[in-house]
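Morning!

This is the sequence you dropped in the shared folder:
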Amino acid sequence: MLIIGNEILIGKTQDTNSNWMAKRITKYGHRVKRIITIEDDLDEISKTIREILDRDPDIIIVSGGLIKEISIL
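The structure's back. Tokens below.
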């Protein structure tokens, strides 16, 4: 699970999304292997997604990242 948000990293906003999603994922018998939080930066997001893909995941869940530059993805 990839959580994107400067506001989370500086403590301005609490990350409730990953908690909510993890509860539902495990409720249905699946497993969350990792939760990563990164800043709202296109290069960092791209780098992190590439690193995640190198691990050959079954699925990637992304939450956040609502800055204008990233909305074109």
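Headline: The chain has one domain: 2-64.

More detail when I'm at my desk.
O.
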